[in-house]
Design goal:
This is 2-keto-myo-inositol isomerase. Keywords: Isomerase. InterPro entries: IolE/XylAMocC-like, UCP036778_sugar_epimerase, Xyl_isomerase-like_sf, Xyl_isomerase-like_TIM-brl. Residues 19-258 form the Xylose isomerase-like TIM barrel domain. With 264 residues, this protein is α/β, with parallel strands linked by helices. It has one domain (2-261): TIM Barrel. Helices cover 39% and strands 16% of the residues. It contains 10 helices and 8 strands. It has helices spanning 15-24, 37-40, 44-53, 72-87, 106-120, 142-151, 164-169, 214-223, 237-240, 245-261; strands spanning 2-6, 29-33, 57-64, 92-95, 126-129, 158-163, 180-185, 229-232. Strands 1-2-3-4-5-6-7-8 form an 8-stranded parallel β-barrel, surrounded by 5 helices. Strand 5 (126-129), helix 6 (142-151) and strand 6 (158-163) form a beta-alpha-beta unit.
């Protein structure tokens, strides 16, 4: 497994310190976020230099929201974020759907993807479509995303982002390893939470109490040909407050390696 780090693992760290953390953990692929002040306040070219000096590849900038409800405002935000991602040396831009309970018709998703292609392609970026499994999400399942991407012209400029949390919440049963460019992992351990009550704030590092079947999901993705990065994306405040996030991440990596290698 090629482990990677999303900056949300340790949002209190500056970009250089986050890059140093990744280096120490042997993760040479990272994701930066446009919702962290230390990132958005920096010159993108400086971030590119810092990543290069650290020997790191920036997989993605996370994220454009809501990509599937096109408007003039979204077009402007998409262009600015894509410009930032390209200058920072990122390979891709994560794209999340509307998540407020409103339905978005398939035709509008296709149109949004067509508009995004015109923004991504000249900047050398790939759009990573991340279905959100929340009950109120307008795009919950990967087969819906695949259908829209196919109708919008195919996968030259797009790929799926498989998030183990959202896959579980959506009750998704389909895997598209050869259409997937990135996997996000996080765990939920609270035994009292119903699936529909799970939120980003409940997403911790994966351990033996995981309820999301991370090991099973990864085992299947890898067995069916996925060979991309597996990026840690824990949102829980208690993870961000850990006194030694490096040790905690190392423990989670060791757990996942052992669990994925176990017979199903």
């Amino acid at each position: 497994m090629r482990f990677a780090l999303n900056h949300i693992c340790a949002p209190q760290l500056s970009v250089p310190d986050f890059f140093a953390l990744a280096q120490r953990l042997g993760c040479y692929e990272v994701e930066i976020r446009n919702d962290l002040p230390d990132v958005t306040g920096q010159d993108a070219a400086q971030i590119a230099r810092q990543a290069s000096d650290a020997g790191l590849t920036i997989i993605s900038v996370n994220a454009l929201y809501p990509f599937n409800l096109w408007s003039d405002d979204l077009a402007g935000r998409a262009e600015r974020l894509a410009d930032f991602a390209a200058r920072a040396g990122a390979q891709s831009l994560v794209m999340c759907p509307l998540n407020d309970g409103h339905k978005v018709e398939h035709s509008r998703v296709v149109a949004a993807l067509e508009n995004m292609r015109a923004i991504l392609k000249p900047r050398g970026l790939k759009g990573l479509v991340e279905p959100l499994g929340f009950p109120q999400s307008s795009l919950r399942r990967k087969d819906e995303a695949v259908a829209a991407i196919t109708e919008a012209g195919g996968f030259d400029d797009f790929a799926l982002l498989h998030d183990t949390f959202h896959h579980h919440l959506a009750g998704d049963t389909q895997f598209f390893p050869h259409r997937t460019a990135l996997v996000h992992v996080s765990g939920v351990t609270d035994p009292a939470l119903g699936i529909d009550a799970m939120l980003d704030a409940h997403r911790v590092l994966v351990d033996g109490d995981d309820r999301l079947e991370n090991a099973g999901q990864l085992r299947r993705l890898l067995a069916e040909g996925y060979d991309g990065p597996i990026s840690f994306e824990p949102f829980a405040p208690e993870v961000h407050a850990l006194p030694d996030i490096e040790a905690a991440l190392r423990d989670s990596m060791d757990h996942l390696r052992a669990a994925v290698e176990e017979p199903a």
